[in-house]
Write a structure and sequence with these properties.
Elements (H helix, E strand, L loop, with lengths): L1 H14 L9 H11 L19 H31 L5 H9 L10 H23 L6 H11 L7 H14 L14 H12 L1 H4 L22 H9 L8 H7 L4 H6 L11 H14 L4 H21 L11 H6 L3 H8 L10 H21 L7 H28 L9 H25 L1 H19 L18 H11 E7 L7 H10 L11 H8 L2 H16 L7 E8 L8 E11 L4 E8 L6 E6 L16 H4 L18 E3 L10 E3 L5 H17 L1 H14 L12
Parallel strand pairs: 6-7
Antiparallel strand pairs: 1-2, 2-3, 3-4, 4-5
Helix pairs in contact: 3-4, 3-6, 3-13, 5-6, 5-7, 6-7, 6-8, 7-8, 8-18, 13-16, 14-17, 14-19, 17-18, 17-19
Length: 706
């Protein structure tokens, strides 16, 4: 290496102050210090602390600690690819596929993501170093590795570049560069991507590139946390959380080892702990923060278990499952211990870590929009880390000032006080959540019933039959259902199930019915139960998602004209469901007796769309736009309804005005109406064919009218 050192020595004068290449000195310095030990040394004598570790060496060790997670992440990305196709592959084949999925998938894979992260991050660091005329900060060595490991392997490359730019510029450089940032830059970048591009960062699809139209039987693309949340919110679920995970091949051991869908570097808890060992041994990672985070997670999860009244609730997730699920281990080892954004005092590190662990569990089990929680809890505590250190220092100052009066507060007391407050608050939240569980379930069922009636435009400001929504009572709803509302169940062929098949359908959906009840009206009431629809959606989700629908059982709600004694049909309503920006969206779409004209659309409020934007889909101004729109073109082809960006033309038959600032939600509603109407297409074709000659007559069991 002597010849390289001589080259650098010869060219140094050109890059130093006054040289012709002075502007590029940060780039020269970065290359020199990366290759060689600094030539500047502390003089002998004095009280200086001598150490051979500079910032670049510290960052390099962190990168070395991340290598096991990176290598396993590459292998796991390839393994999930082949598992999704139902193909067995060797370790080498999995590793090669994980590096790069191949030309047919453009630049998707771990290697393109990693190269993009380092290239874009390095350019950003260089630009700021040249402009500010200082040395290149070393932070991008770690940030460039951390961010890719927190991303799904199928994320588009341009999103990676955008995320890195946001993390480096907004998360670090605007605060002054490395050592001055409040928030962890890698987590800041991931949070930006998570909220800006939710479909590419969450749900089922982002974690696996299958290369096929559908998954093989018995293989799930949902991450464990997503599966747990879906199971806990399923009103028809009959198994516990742990059993549901096991049935989906997510045992504790498999999650600990990491051969499961998830972010590139976050799936293997074992390898995260291996990296933790290196960081602790070298003194770079704080063992206090890691241990405190673990204690907070286990303690809060145990408290939630005590408060849980059912093993099907999110509160019942065992503490040791929280440790191996999601990004807990990765965040605890590599993110929470960031020496810049974490607490600096020893006592503060305990408080900081415990609160991260407690907040993680609270977000996971209570907040329906963010079942992961580790990213948000760390960023939240990053903001409070200076305050925690300030409080600790003030307590130390007060302790020393009051030594004369023997008044002092030990570090132990500080930790105990904070822990007690956290436990009390969590316990209060758990008690409230548990006590209201039955009431919430009952109200959800009531809201579904109101939504079905609202889809027929029966509920309004007073001019509609049932009057204002805020004045309705449950008795009126049930009485109206028994008098005017009926339900049939059809299949995708357009056939209507017989009474016996209807009873079998209800039984298959696990609806509790008294065997002695034979009244058809009561059976139809039961079919309106939310559990029926939820179970149907759960059973048929895979087929619906991959557009390989075979023979689904689909409910159709029928409104009969007033005073017709259920002989004249006034309108039909069908459930519609799809995916919005943050998660599932559901509602009901009513169709006129001609089988081609939309009467109204209603959307359920149990979604997680953005308030003020996507949530506007619940407003009457938006839902009313669907009234009178046609589901088919003049040739009889199904086109459904398109939610356009901006204002739709007044004479448009198949377009409605979109939601301003909520493009993804609007697209989700468009796809929702088309796919769901496609399931009922054969049935409404039969209705339309008979509408001209038999309009308003009772449907027979063959899908038409009689």
């Amino acid at each position: 290496m002597k010849f390289l050192e001589k080259i650098f020595d010869k060219k140094r004068a050109d890059f130093e102050k006054g040289g012709k290449l002075e502007f590029f000195y940060p780039l020269f310095e970065a290359k020199e210090t990366f290759l060689f030990v600094l030539g500047r040394r502390t003089k002998d004598g004095g009280v200086h602390i001598r150490d051979n570790m500079d910032s670049k060496r510290l960052m390099s060790i962190v990168v070395q600690a991340l290598i096991p997670c990176l290598l396993f992440g590459i292998y796991n990305a390839g393994y999930q690819f082949y598992a999704g196709q139902g193909t067995e592959a060797s370790i080498l084949e999995c590793f090669a596929k994980g590096l790069w999925y191949g030309p047919e998938h453009k630049f998707q894979g771990v290697l393109p993501i990693l190269i993009t992260s380092y290239a874009v991050g390095g350019v950003c660091e260089l630009i700021f170093a040249l402009i500010r005329k200082h040395e290149i900060n070393e932070g991008f060595l770690v940030t460039g590795m951390l961010l890719p490991l927190t991303l799904p392997p199928t994320i588009p490359i341009w999103m990676v570049a955008l995320g890195v730019i946001f993390g480096v510029v907004i998360g670090k450089e605007i605060f002054g560069g490395t050592g001055m940032n409040i928030f962890n830059p890698a987590l800041t970048a991931r949070a930006f991507l998570f909220f800006a591009y939710a479909p590419q960062m969450s749900g089922d699809a982002p974690w696996i590139m299958t290369g096929a139209e559908s998954f093989v039987d018995g293989f799930t693309s949902a991450t464990p946390l997503a599966l747990v949340y879906a199971h806990a919110t399923d009103a028809a679920a009959s198994t516990g959380i742990v059993e549901a995970l096991t049935n989906s091949h997510y045992t504790w051991t498999s999650m600990f080892l990491g051969r499961i869908p998830g972010s590139i570097g976050e799936t293997s808890t074992l390898l995260c702990f291996l990296g933790a060992g290196l960081l602790i041994a070298t003194g770079i990672g704080s063992w206090r923060v890691m241990l405190a985070t673990l204690i907070g997670c286990v303690g809060m999860a145990s408290l939630m278990n005590i408060c849980s009244s059912s093993d099907m609730s999110m509160l019942s997730i065992p503490a040791h499952y929280h440790i191996v699920m999601g990004g807990f281990a990765f965040g605890m080892v590599y993110m929470a211990t960031d020496p810049v954004s974490a607490a600096q005092t020893n006592a503060g590190k305990w408080v900081y870590g415990i609160l991260i662990g407690c907040l993680l569990v609270i977000i996971r089990v209570i907040n329906p929009a963010y079942p992961e929680g580790m990213m948000l809890s760390i960023l939240f505590l990053n903001a409070f880390a200076p305050l925690i250190d300030y409080c600790v220092l003030q307590l130390h100052i007060a302790k020393r000032a009051n030594r004369v009066t023997k008044a002092h507060h030990s570090n132990t007391e500080i930790v105990i006080i904070v822990a007690v407050l956290a436990v009390v608050c969590a316990f209060a939240l758990s008690i409230v959540s548990s006590s209201l569980r039955d009431k919430v379930a009952e109200n959800k069922k009531y809201d579904v019933q109101k939504s079905i009636l609202d889809s027929f435009k029966l509920i309004g400001e007073g001019e509609e039959e049932l009057g204002p929504e805020e004045k309705l009572v449950k008795g009126e709803i049930l009485a109206f259902i028994g008098e005017r509302l009926g339900v049939i169940v059809v299949n995708t062929k357009g056939d209507i199930l017989s009474k016996e098949e209807l009873a079998g359908f209800l039984k298959a959906q696990k609806v509790s019915l008294d065997e002695k009840i034979k009244d058809e009206v009561e059976q139809k009431k039961a079919a309106i139960d939310e559990a029926v629809l939820r179970q149907k959606l759960k059973n048929d989700h895979k087929a619906f998602k991959n557009e390989t629908v075979k023979d689904m059982s689909l409910p159709v709600f029928i409104l009969y004209k007033k005073g017709s004694d259920k002989s004249i049909i006034d309108a039909y309503a069908i459930p519609v469901w799809g995916k919005g920006l943050w998660g599932p969206i559901r509602g009901y779409l009513s169709i006129e007796p001609d089988g081609r004209t939309v009467r109204y659309l209603t959307m359920l409020g149990d979604h997680s769309e953005t308030p003020g934007l996507g949530k506007e889909m619940e407003r009457k101004w938006f839902r009313g736009n669907f009234t009178g729109k046609k589901t088919h073109d003049d040739t009889g082809k199904l086109v459904a309804i398109t939610v356009v960006k901006g204002k739709a033309p007044a004479d448009a038959k198949h377009k409605v005005t979109g939601l301003s600032g909520a493009t993804i939600t609007s697209v989700g509603i468009t796809k929702m109406t088309k796919k769901c109407l496609g399931l009922y297409e054969k049935y409404f074709d039969n209705v339309a064919k008979n509408a001209a000659k038999d309009a308003g007559k009772k449907p027979d069991t063959n899908g038409g009218t009689k």
